[in-house]
Queue: 3 jobs
Job 1
Amino acid sequence: MSDTTPARSMEINGTVIDDTFAEGFGMRGTRILITAQNHRWAYNAANAMTGFATSVIACGVEAGIERELSPDETPDGRPGYSVLLFAAGSAVLIKQVETRMGQCVLTSPTSAAFSGIDGGDRINLGKNLRFFGDGFQQSKKIGSRRYWRIPVMDGEFLVEETTGMVRAVGGGNFLVLADSQPQALAACEAAIDAMKKLPNIVMPFPGGVVRSGSKVGSKYKALMASTNDAFCPTIRGITRSDISPGIESVMEIVIDGLTEADVREATRVGVQACCDIGAKGGIRRISAGNYGGKLGQFQFHLHDIMGGAK
Amino acid sequence: MSALTFTLKNPAGPADIDCGGLTADTLAGKTAAEVAALPLLVGGRTAKVDDVFEVSGTDAMQIVFRGSTARCHRIGAGATTGSIHVDSDAGDHLGAQLRGAEISVTGSAGDFAASEMKKGRIVVQGDVGDCAGAPLPGNKKGMSGGMLVVHGNAGERLADQLRRGQILVAGNSGPYTASRMIAGTVLVLGSVGAHCGHAMRRGSLIVRQRPPLPATFADCGTHTLAFLPLLMASWKEAGAPFATLPVNARVHRLMGDTGNGGKAEVLVWA
């Protein structure tokens, strides 16, 4: 067992901030606005659209609901949600948007979908989906935007032809090391609640929190990744552990954002929420996951980000 | 710089004047004297601009026609930029093949207003004649972009073979409104003449009262359509009465002209 608590010390409210960094990667991202008759059905469509989208490794995209939209914030004046989707490359994102729009939003009662990014490269939102209309679809160009009206059983599905795709940042993260599993989860919940108030980011794992952080490689040749044993508390005595004695549970929050600044700000807000609970609440350390800085083009150093915190 | 102004010297004169060349595209950078010396077709013969107009001002991006009459044809034709204001009436082909400029007319305009217009905006406070937004004779596609706003009435064959863009009419429209329409949107707040939608293929005609449609239009029921609020929001800049239309109106949808294989829609406010 080795305890690699960093030499440079930083402590916020009794919680140690490791002198390490999260390693982020360049991604392609897009935003889609989904509306419906009420928030319940807009949520159902948005939730389905961003389901099974925790990691690009197996899901193609990382996605989540960015925030709820009031009727005066949506193009058609109905309640809605904005969703963000991120992929490792543009081809995958384009394909995933098309598939998810067809299976999750087109199918959802009363839904409509609109571009959430005006600039960027234009990718198909309803451009190919229109063929579901079997020739009964109608185009309507209003101003500079083209919409498609596709007849469906509950009326018409209205969808904008394209949305914007921009360069984005994925892989921001931090780890919460706590005295107990309930305390780790409570801190992560507080962090997610605070981070969800920020624009331009999503935390793609269930509820925003991941408990099965992974390392690259495995003893099994077929696997590219396996459990991050250095942060698994139940085997800390027999592995090259990175957790201090007394720590019983570690959870991770992964962040994807439209810009580096967005991910950085989300990290700051999330870590601060955990530190507000602090050592008295069982939050012992905050760390982050990286690959030695060799793979990702972005580095989010915890000490730099939390430098102004108390 | 003051607006480049053309004041008609003899409003009672009988000859037709081709004003098509008097746009920012051709006049930018020219002095008033240079503009006055330019050739102009008057009654089929080549004259000079100052034979029929008094020319003042230099800013070709803001052109004003004063005292013009229904003899002043092709005002703003093909213009790509700038604004043109007509403080009285305009003749035929107002803004024909317009490609981006903005035209406003205080009075009325003649036939073929906005014919084959591609981009831009034309606002006529009075009436427009026949074939507004239609193709020029011999051609097969009418207006393909931009917006024509008519606060008075429109004549026959409004939006004939309309390809894209929007036409808003506050008053009535004549027979064969939206005939052979290919796509686009037409709104008529008043009554619509006979044979409306004849051979209409695609696009939307939106009216307040059910027009005399051919029997080849099929009833598709009353609906709340999601695109209408977006469309009506885009009409707010057109001012009253278009800005005050009910956003979430239910509409009666009729589709046709099935005699022509058409899938166009006539939406009647329920």
Note: The mean pLDDT of chain A is 95.
Job 2
Amino acid sequence: MKTFFLYAYLCLLFIGISTNSYAQKQFKFGDVPEEILKMTAYPTDTSAVAAVIYENCDLWYTTGSDDLRLNKNYTIRIKIFKNAGLDYADFSIPYIYGNNDSREHVTGITGYTYNIDENGKKERIKLTKEYIVEEKTSDSQRRKKIAFPNVKAGSVIELKYELSSPHYTHLDDYIFQADIPVRYSRYAVVIPEYFRFSKNTMGFEPIDYSESIENISFLFGGGHFSCSGYKMVFEVNELPAMKDDNYVWNKYDYMSRVNFDLKGIQFPYSPFRSLASNWQNIDQRLMEAEHFGKQLRFTGLLKNEIAEIKVSDKNDTEKITDILNLVKQKIQHNDKNDLFISDVRKSLKEGTGSSAEMNALLLCALKDAGYEPFPVVMSLRSRGRLLINQPSITNLNFYVVGVIADNKTIYMDASEKYGSLNVLHTDCMVQNARMIQNNKPSKWVDLQNTGRNVTTTHVTAKFNEDGILSGKFSANKIGVPAMNACHKYDKEKDLDEYQKKLESELDIKISDFKVDGFIETPNIVKESYTFENTNINLGDEYLYINPLLFPIVEENEFKAESRKLPIEFSYPYTFSQRIFFEIPENYEVDELPKAERINLNDGDITYAYLIKLEGNTLQINHSLTIKRTLYGVNDYEHLREFWATVATKNTAQMVLKLKAD
Amino acid sequence: MLRMPIEKPTLNQQGKTKTYEWVLEGYMPVEKEVYAPSLGSMAPSVIIAPVKFCMDGFCGDMSDWKSLGQWMYSLQEKKNTIPASFSDKLLEMTKEATTDKEKIEILYKYLQSTTRYVSIQLGVGGYQPMPADKVAKSGFGDCKALSNYMKAMLDVVGIPSVYVGISTNIKNIYTDFASLTQMNHAILMVPLPNDTIWLECTSPINPFNYAHSCIAGHHALLINENGGEICRVKPMPETADNQSSYYHITVKDNGNATAEIRNDYKLEAYEDMQFFVHSLSHEEQLNYLADENAFAKAKISNLQIHTNDNETPHMQLAYNMHIDKFANKSGTRLFVPYSPLKHKFRALKTGERKHDIIISAGSVRNDTLIIDIPENFIQESLPKSNTIHSQFGNYSIANTFENNQLQIVQQLFIKQGRYPAGDYEQFREFFKQIEKESNKRAVFKIKTN
């Protein structure tokens, strides 16, 4: 039930009767109505620097020399309101420029800039060739860069072009929403009856949909061939600008858009030509692919080392850890994250490779050691959520390795330097990843909760003979906190430097600084030290001290009054502290912060601040647990209030009073 | 040019190709430190420039700034023609203006409202401006094209100006070594009898004659018919980063509060806040202010923005705030944050300092807080007023408490300059003290009758 809301908005398909063909009928390329040219601000968002007034994209199929082509006709009209919106007059049209068979063609680029001249008259300037530059972006990619002339605040620009592509099985996502408001946008696709496709609409804003049947005529082998086609029209009106926010994995996940996935083609009297119609099909294609499955079949890549590990008397968890470590030593990560494996043997030889090569070596090595490892494919958080109802190989961009041992499933990513068994980089902690096992049906797994993420700290403090507040601090970190801690240590030159940094951040003096477990593939990281805090002086009549000494949340993370996007925490965790604070002899407790225990939505997040005095020792149990990572906008106000309480409690002070005698 | 200690290069010749090789051995990494001099100013480096060179058919001599300037000047020659009809329009626009400065301002604002920056970097185009008539037609260009275009417009109204090459990241270039790579930007300078005007031609929002922080005080290469000449752009005042604020806060006995707030931003602080006016929606502005203030939960209303976009630019924000849990209420006490303002100092590491300390821009910050404490509370503990003097600047915080009204005045001045590494501990201590003072709380206790 808790995760229901996510599916609810990601998969909503609004089917309705198209209500706004008004805007479409009104639109005439090359002729901007006065009212739009004279508009000074966008009515529903006066801060908008620009707005898409009209956008239209038609897609249809024709026949090329020996195969189908996908054609696109694109038109856009943008109004610029402010100087900060001038960038919206620059366009870039990327296209594939490979050999003849794969080359795309961009043609018919036409555009105008409209202004009102000094005499109050409408002025139209044509986009001529000199404003269109061709750029080579890679061996097979080019782009047309367009800069509209004479654009200033108040201008309206119009652009249209056509693109013809031989890559007819792939339709890009069509994104209606933008960083600026969109008044009207239409996307129409005509698909021949012989095509099998699935369509999905996503995002928060409603999308109008209508469909009809049209006759299409193809030219095949010198003769005409007609069939009927489904014409699908998607329209949106008045979409607000999409803005980024904190605690959002990827704002792209929430933009209103349409996705088409061609599943196959069934011409009359011909066999069905499947084009990845389902996930089983994708699994199979992946496992047979030169740069995926075939690269995972190598044996004996680390023959001697694996043989040694295999005969050792360690248990499975230890052996797997050794193998993971070995792989990290054999191949350095080149900072590239990938699904496809170019050449695992070459990477091993050169000692450097992408995540795909590192994990391929890990998988092969685990297999050699007698396990049955499998790839777990996904789309990283930073690349956008993978939707189960949209089977598509192009949406996959990463994989980790899974293995079942000691009666549990263990996930690993060799490219995460400080990752370990079931501790993955948060970018891989996705809701839907696909486990592709040999001879077993594949299944979907949720990688948000692969292991425990716990930080436990223990603090004892008292005023020493010299009247200085001093004590011992220790922390145990497990899971993602352990991984993060290692990255923090790693950022400094050495642990000495880390200690110095900590001293300045916490404004304390640190000695006996010790860290255990700062290794690649850490299991548990233990940090401990002795501290002195010279900021509190004994002797005053009243002492005001925050008894937590090491508060965990000092500021509300959700200060903004309003929120548009859901709240997504990085990972579930528990943070708990135990504090023992000895009250100095000549003081007594005058007032303590009140104990507090709050929870959000039946325990999705819980916070406790339990304080009691036992003899002259103050004991505090302080903890924050986040169980659920994803929250809807409806929960925002509660989260804001919750975090305000947590922040306030973390800065609360106790009052100690000098004894009368 | 060599910045030592690098041995002279070895030369290898193979056919027509000469290969120079510089070798640096056994050099320890330069440690990263905050407030440190730039890596370029500390690490050994080699800068290479050709003496005689040709680029796309334009030949020149880089042996000194004068000859390099000559080459750059030759690139712009004949690039400043403006169509006759456009000239008439410019003359018409400026005919009412009584002084040259007024005329320049009119044309600058016209430039800002009719052109935009588009980057163009191809071949000699990386150094050669697009002709002025092309900019007039297209309404866009890069820094060179727009500066040259502005120059051409000024020519029309009879005001001579000078095209200037500059670096936006390096304040002091190697003046004894002429090279193109030490510059990455172009601006325009207009010499007037009693004034020098500096024009940043790529920004639609930069105030007229305001040398912004990426060029102020930087070396500049003036380029005119006699060649190049190094000078400096008008520097910022010593305290370029200038902020002040006024808070009148009324605390209720549950710790919640209402506040009337004014924030003032000048010069660099104004630059940093320009996005607030130009890029944020009203809703985002409110969210930004809620986040900028250190309060756990606040609601903002009645936001008013005033700006003076002139040579000494200034922005003022005035708003009201409702603050939940402003004072931490704990049983019988109210803990009132003494200085509820977010300071943005980077935590300074303890330990040995390797490099000198550089404070590249001075800053000044004045805050006044008037806090009305509820009638039924009395003072229990007030932090002492304090003044800290150091070579890096001064800090003072002073309070009075009368008629249940707490008044706090906080002043901070940080002095621009270079300080020896040996003074690092003092430097750290200075900021630590400020941090400590501003984290204090005033404590009030409920009256017991």
Note: Chain B is about 20% helix and 35% strand.
Job 3
Amino acid sequence: MTTEENQTAVRLVLKALRIEMAEERIPALAESYAQVIAQSHQLRESNTPVPTAPHFDASWSEN
Amino acid sequence: MTVANPNPHPRTIRQTLDQLNRKDLSTAELMTEILTRIQETDEDVYAWLDVRPQHLLDLAVAQDRRRSLDKPTTPLFGIPIGVKDIIDLAGYQTVCNMESREHVDKALRDAEIVHQLRKTGVNFLGKTVTQEAAAGIYSDPCRNPWDISRIPGGSSGGSAAAVANGTALGAFGTDTGGSIRIPAALCGVTGLKPTYGRLSLTGIYPLSPSLDTPGPLANNVADCMALYLGMQGKGDEIDAMWARFGDEAVGLAGIRIGVLTNYFTDNVSADISSAWQRATAHAERMGAEIVECEWNDAYDARIVATHLQRVECGQIHRDLLTSAPDLMGEQLRTRVELGAILPADVWYAALAGRERIKKSIASLYAQHSLDAILVPSTPVTAPAVGDKQVSYPDGTIEDTGVALTRLTQPWNATGQPVFALPSGMDQNGLPIGLSLVGRPDDEWHLADIAHALQLSIQ
């Protein structure tokens, strides 16, 4: 996604969520947004597919 | 521009209890000492928000009367404690340093952990300063007692500064990305982030409920454990607990301590690196086996914690963002704006990632039979107020918020218990902190190791 496309996407999301924002804030927000989405994709590729309840039993009982 | 810390050997809870019980010190004298110190220094340090001197003195006098009649007292009778201002304390506002909550009603009841600790007889001095909504590391307007031109860290900055400055013997903190361990490190006090889920969050303003973890800050490991017991509603175990943490040095034979040679060694100041090596050498001399190992998922662990926090914080404050964004500080607003627009699958990816990370760190502990891991709490000591970036000897520059949370956040993703231990000073006379990371729900074993190490380092 280009910078411009990314900023357009962020504007659309903001509009859908009815969050008003000054235009000068958009570029920085869009850049952070793109960074998080990229990190999230990367994380997803490394993950095993099944998220489970947050407890330690299974992992640590094998120790 | 510094405030000389008058407490190079600060009061500990245990020593103070001994003095009170022997009647070498009265609760009123202790309270007067604390209130005088607050009056003399808090104009500079600004750790406190709402302290009511007459009420506290009346309380102390009543406690002395009870003691003089040899009536039964409770385990922490008369010990002065601070409460971070995102935690409900009955009769006080919980403002969370948020302009939108300036006129919020006073809390009608204590948060659960406050309610439980109150049963031990502590005196709650008042509320301590926090970062706005506990979302950050500056804790403005609070300052570091070791040098008031520097930040105390956050978000439990007021709590750490109060303990370091001798205006409380212990305090409540909360830790979502390092908010107990960072200020503990920067202010030179001891902190415990317990295992995620061990202490109740009821009555605590949320930042990121998947990560939020309350815990104590105090002057040593034993004091932290006494407060931790009290917060759990196990105050009746405190008297017997003190014997476990004697003043005699004990060995660490049979203990295996992991030293991570990647991620936690990147961009760490020379003074902190030296302190870490000294502590490792201390542990080895005490009989511990030092195991050098790598954990390749530390970066992913940080990403997991960051994403969970961003999305959850965004949801919590989204209404404020749409209704009154002008009442939000710049840092909180920026954080919430991003969190509010992220798609839900970022959150699910982070949750799935968290499970992988937990398995990964569990495997590392199992593979090397580790009892604990020792790493720096922060890569730098307290930055100056207003410094948005920190720099390293190799010329690298890093955002201050990123730098201070870089080494703490991975342990929020895993949820493990961590002791933040003061470990000497840097060349500018600022405290250095190390983190001792244990197995989940293994706080007592971790406390034994931390106590032994603390005695040795001191």
Note: The first helix of chain A runs from residue 3 to 16.
